[in-house]
Structure formats: C-alpha cells, structure tokens
Amino acid sequence: MELQDLFIRKEKENIKEFICKSLEKRTRPLTAKDLLIYRINRLIMPIGFDRKKDTIAVYGDRLGYYVQQLARYYNVVGIGSFASIGVKEAWKKGIHSITYRTWYRRLAEGYQEDDYALIEKEIGELEAMFERLHVKFVIVTDLYPVIQRAVCLAAKRKQIPVAHYEHTSLLNLTQDPDASRFYQEHAKDYSDFYWYWSQKNMDTIVDFGIANIDNSTVIGYPYKVERLDIEKKKSVIWIGDGETHDSDTPEVYYGIVKAIYEHCKEKGIEFIYRPHMKEKKAFYEPLVEQGMKLSHNRLAEDLEGNYVVIGGKTTCLLEAGLYDDVVFQVLWDQKIVGAFLFENAYVLSTDKEEILNSIDQALAGNLPAKKIREYNLKISELGELSKATIEKNIRQYEEMK
Q1: Neighbours of 392 (CB within 10 A)
Q2: How many CA atoms within 13 Å lie on the side-chain side of 243?
Q3: Residues spanned by CATH 3.40.50.2000 within the chain?
Q4: pTM exceeds 0.90
Q5: Given this structure, which CATH class describes domain 233-363?
Q6: Distance CA 106, CA 119 (A)
Q7: CA–CA separation, 117 vs 183, rounded Å?
Q8: Angstrom distance (rounded) from CA 43 to CA 99
C-alpha cells in the first residue's frame, strides 16, 4: 500500500486541520540541544540491555506501572518517556526511553505539508532503531494520532507484531463517524492485536467489526490502584482533559469551571482545578489569578484525597470510581463526550444551576458514590498475565505470516 493511502489517509479537511492543530500545540522549534540529545540517545541505547531478554517497544507515557512489570521479562524501549518513572530508576529496571522530540517534530512538519519524502525518512529512522535493537513486539495506546500511526507503520514494515492497548480511545468510534471510518478501513494496517480495559470495551469493538475474538484480549486496568491512606476531604476537584476544552466554545467549559469555583468559594468549600498537560494556560490562568487552586499532584493522590470529582471527557472519571468518589460528568458536546459515559458518574448538562445543586447534594451526603462493575472496568495484576499475552500474540503472528 502506498504511503499516501496509508499514513496520510483521505480524511476530511476539518479532521486534518484538527490533527495539525494538535501537532502544533505539542511541538516546538528544534534546538541544538534537541539534536544533540537525539544523536547521543541513538548511540547509547543498547547499553544496559540484558542480552538474555527479548526487547519490546512501548508508546504510552501513562503506562509506567505496566512497563515496570514488563521489565521483569523484557528489555523495554519507551518511545518518549514514562512520567511516573524517574530516569535512574528506569535504567535500573531495564527501561530505556528514546528522546523523540526531534523525530516527532520532523514527522509533524511532513504531515502538515504533505511532504511524503520527509515522512518516509522519519519512519525509516524508527525502522532502523527497531532493527538495531532487535525489537520483537510493539505496544501503542492509540492508532488515530499521527505519531502512533508512524510507530505502527515502522513496526509493520519490519514485520514486528503490534498490539493496541486501549486508553478507551476506541470508544470514539461510537460517536465520531470519521474516526469510525478510519478504524474500519485501516485499523488492520496498523495493529495486529487489541487489548482492553474491560469486557464491555472488547464487546464494543468486536461488534463494530474492527477486531475479532481471536486477536482480542481483556487485560484490565493498566495502572496500579494505589491506596495512600489519605483522608478524603469534603472538597471538589475538576479534572481537565486534553480535548473538550479546546472545542469551538471554550467559554462554556471555563464558564462552568468559574461558576463552580465561585460557588465553592462562597460556601467555604475547597475547589481544586487539575489541568491537563495539553490545556492552554491562557484559558484558566485568569481564574488562578482570582485565587483558584491548581493541583499537579499524582493522580492517585487527587482521586483519593477529594470527595467530589467532576469533568467531561477523561478516563480519570472512570478511575475516580475506584476511590469511592462521587463523580459528575458534564456533557456539553454530545458528539465528543457521548462515547465516554461511565456507569459510576452522575451525568449532568451544562446548566450551571443543575451542576451547583448536584455538588451541594453530594457534599450533603444525599448522592452516594457509585460502584463500577468488573464488566466495565477490570482490575488485574499484570506481570505474568501480560507476558503470557505477549508470547501468545507473537505465536499467533508467526502462524499468520
């Protein structure tokens, strides 16, 4: 298949515009330091590898706990870094990350300009790395973003099996017709196997005709559920997300945040805003200047330490159900958020009075926390389970060749 057909698919202009906009927010002009780190990293990567172990590559910066389990059995190459693991600790455990900013920036430029030659060159860089490090298996957490499509394409060209470990992103299929068409037409060109957080998500994707029973495995929640013994405060925390706030009406999103902040302030209730790393500071900084408190704590700390958790399109709302929080999910864009309805959340409209009254009811003890069934979110210990799954998938891949 031609690169133009596979990597730069024939998407609608508004979808391509959205992806390019996302790329612009996540990249910056390259510096001499970037180029130096990139070159050094390519040279020293194999140092510290255990020659008795196979090597796997993982893309997904929130899979820190997961890759620490895998490092017991494999040399792990992170495409990017794992924020939850320090550099020294990662090296001790056999986890090595490539600094991909240089590669990512060039890839973004090629995508934005439809420069197939540049895209081809940057994918070739990754192919060469896979070959040099003898990578046997690749894990990604999405197929829609440009960078993960490039990772998958490089692996496929080197005949390396790829597993897509969902970050519930596949559920976008049920609401987004463009994403749905992309997955139905091209998912097989990028991913060989699909791993899920729950049986519900697996059933959704299999029923959609994208995956089948043979190449699907329910792994479970990929993060460690930490119990920190933190006293749960009678407080409210808003969990920001990386997409919804950047819609055509950010004033609606931040207008709701502002109303909750002012309401809590008036009643003497602590309100905390946890921004997403993709959010534009310019949107919430005016509220910070007025006294709104920000949190940059570990997610587990925020979920266990606060009583009411509210947000829109973020899997953190699902995770909050593991900490017995009262969870509210605000739906202001049915198309964007509709696929992310979680059974442990009370669903609210954008009506501010409804939202504020619901928060008051929760703090008064009139709205109990909802539980999550295993069908919707499976908690699993990784380690042997994931190793067995990888080995099974490699065998399946060899049989399919």
Answers
A1: 12
A2: 15
A3: 3-224+379-400, 233-363
A4: no
A5: alpha beta
A6: 8
A7: 25
A8: 12
- Strand order of the sheet with strand 216-218? 95-98, 75-79, 55-58, 135-140, 162-165, 193-196, 216-218
Task: Tell me which residue has tokens 């030659």.
Answer: 117
Amino acid at 25: K
User: Do the beta carbons of residue 153 and residue 123 sit within 8 Å?
Assistant: yes
According to CATH, the topology of domain 3-224+379-400 is Rossmann fold (3.40.50)
Output the CA–CA distances (angstroms, integers) from residue 35 to 79, 100, 124, 150, 335, in the order listed: 16, 10, 17, 20, 40
Closest C-alpha to 152, from 182, 177, 173? 182
Helix (H, G, I), strand (E, B) or coil at 338: helix
**pLDDT one digit per residue (tens) for the chain, 401 residues:** 455 555 544 444 444 555 555 555 555 565 666 556 556 555 555 666 777 889 999 987 667 778 888 888 998 888 876 656 666 677 677 777 765 566 777 777 777 777 888 888 888 988 988 998 889 999 998 776 677 888 898 999 999 999 998 875 555 565 566 666 667 777 788 899 999 888 888 888 888 788 899 999 998 888 777 777 778 889 999 999 866 555 556 788 899 999 999 999 999 999 999 998 778 788 889 999 999 999 988 888 899 899 999 998 788 888 888 888 999 998 876 655 555 677 889 999 889 999 999 999 999 999 999 988 888 888 876 666 788 999 999 999 999 87
Structure tokens at 392: 């099974």
User: What is the edge-to-edge ordering of all strands in the sheet holding 233-239?
Assistant: 293-294, 271-274, 233-239, 306-311, 326-330, 345-348
